[in-house]
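Before anything else, study the sequence and fold tokens given here and see whether the fold suits the sequence. Record follows:
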Amino acid sequence: MEHDGGETISDVSFPLGEGVSGRGRSTIYMSDEGEEAFYVPERRPSLDLGDGLRPMDTTHWHDVERAKSPVHSYNSVNSDTQFWPSDELDEETELSATRVQLERTESYSSGYSVDSDDCETRTRKSQDTAPKEEGPAVELPRPELIKNPDEKRHPALTVDFTFKAIRKTLEKLGKDDLRTFKITLWKRYPESFSSPPQGMDMVDLVDRLLECYDLEVALQLTKALLKDMGLKRLDAYLTDLCKKNEVRYELRDTLLRKYSWMCEGVAQQGEHKAFDSIFNELYITDRGNAGPNIEHEVRKIDKLSTNRKEEKRITCSQIFDPDVIYEKHVSHIVTNGIAGVGKSVAVQKFIMDWAEEREHNHVYFLFPLPFKELNLMLNLKISLLEIVHTLYPETKVLPTFECDEGKVMFICDGLDEYAHSLDFHRTETWCDSTEPAAMHVVVTNLIRGNLLPSSLLWIISRPLTSSRLPPESVHQVLEVRGFTNEQKEEYFRRRFQDPAQADKVIAHLTSCKTLHIMCHLPMFCCVVRDVFQHTFREKGPDAELPKGLTLMYTRLLLVHLHVRGARGSASRTPEEERDFLMNLGKLAFTMLEKNQMVIGKATWKDCGVDVAEAVTKSGLCIEFLIEQFVMYQERIQTFIHPTIQEYLAALYVFLTWRCMGQNVLQQPRNSKFSRMFKDPGLLDMYRSAIERSLQSPDGNLDVFLRFLLGMAQTANQELLQRFLPEMNKCSSASEETAAIIRKKIKENHYPDRNANLQCCLDELGVGAEAPRRSRSNSVKSH
């Protein structure tokens, strides 16, 4: 078309794109919602000015307000300029985007198409084609942009989560759906963008949403668009992500409240302490068949061959490491350890690290299922889902725990406490985590891997019970072995805030090798701490610390018996408990005389002690495997440490004399009056024990003698009171026994035993006259 000045104007030089192409006909344009929006009247005849003699008829003219200046993003175009920066936009997109620009300027007219003899005006036309008064365009209602001011934001809704949730949802869109999403976003919310979002990548797109809107609004907006696009499954997916995120937050909060405090030993009410303030790293290895710690101050004990491969030391944070899960395909781990070695502390550390988001972020849901709590549901027919809902009510809003955001993990602590036997050969298969079944069926199939097969399972147990699990259900075996020497020192420095007291305690333990060795057990460290703290409170910071062993071991024994009762074992009367200790002590004494550690099957029968009671319930013995021949393993049992065997043997000898008036160290007397004279009988027993110890090869009875001499001390008898007959306490005969020992030292017939005789004086609580030979030994690290 030629203008008056001879300039050629292209169709595309008009912002609406159809200003010229629409001439000569009446045109109606449709809005985004499908209603008639713009009306272009039919072309009028050109004005005839004639010869210029008549005035022009202007009665049909009316004033038209000039359109406002276009917004900043509105591009000026000419015949060779494209309005859209992206080549992907089609004609429909161009038209709708043009209408968006008009709405943003709130103008009923975008410009004029003018030639020498025509003027066209674009005017609004209502749905019924009736003229409408001029005014600003009315925005369609957008309820997803309305935020309830009274609604409190959930703490789990963070910028990081919202970004990841929206991005993860949009990444599930196909190429065409994503393009449609961006177009719809541009049409409905133009105020969010200075240019069309077609060229934006996913990160920029989500970033822009979070810059423009509150977190709640950004989520509502995304869900509204997905719903309008007919993508209801993605809308539900995003809703589910938000719900799971809230449950995860509340679950972490629950676990923090439950596990952030720690009770050591047999603590009294009010003695709980913050877990992180007293936690010590533990000695954990990647092999679960190390056998007992046989390090001994005097005896030379040959280590039993367990044919273990080279062990690898790991930390709590490395348990269920992602590399182990995905590269080695490990999903079921069993962790063993003797009583008091720190297994439950390792579990608590793992839970705390997850709850505080320090470690294990690849685990999305973590559900501790302690067997002592499962025991309370034994009589119920219940599903795995219902078990979790019962223990963690915040999870009831979830119909299932399966998710692709991370792993679901169950921690089953205390398998040896479970009150129902597990039969992996006869128990029915059960694969539905939402269908109820008997508790033992649910537990068995969880261990088999039939319930939530993609989940992670961590089982913690004492060795006897865990060794009964089917090999195909155990992908990795770990063993908690207590403290190394460095960790022992760290433990006592944390418990004694005064550095001078801590130095004194550590120096004292280093000088007493048996105490130092036994401190590989965290439970024994707790006993020693209590005794030493009591000494400092009673006698002041400069007090001399006790050197005796017997009192420490008696306290350890009582802790074991207390734990046995707390674990749900059948209660026993003091008489029944004494009979159990005497039978086990008799077994220990018989084996000690033969210098044996391994307990044979026939020996168990002869002493009348149940293996499960001694190994699993009391925790005083341990079971492990030795490989006698190729592909042949044998289960054997021993005491958890040689000094435990020696202590129980001494306890048996003392209780037999105290309760029955018999001295098992010599032939029984025929005198009818032997039981009337307790003190001479005790002194006779001590004298015979000293002689037998000095004559035993390689000092096999040396530590046994120390324990026996410490049994009759007043403080020790008070601890053992419930096992003793109701009569006056016997005299300890300390001075008379000390005189015998000093005489033996002076005679020096057994020079290599003098150091042990000095230790015997410590057990009696009397000072030594002869100068001590140093008992301080360098202790090598594990």
Notes: Confidence is low (pLDDT under 50) at residues 1-54, 61-140, 672-680, 769-782. The two ends are 97 Å apart (CA to CA). Residues 351 and 363 are 11 Å apart (CA to CA). DSSP finds 27 helices and 18 strands in the chain.
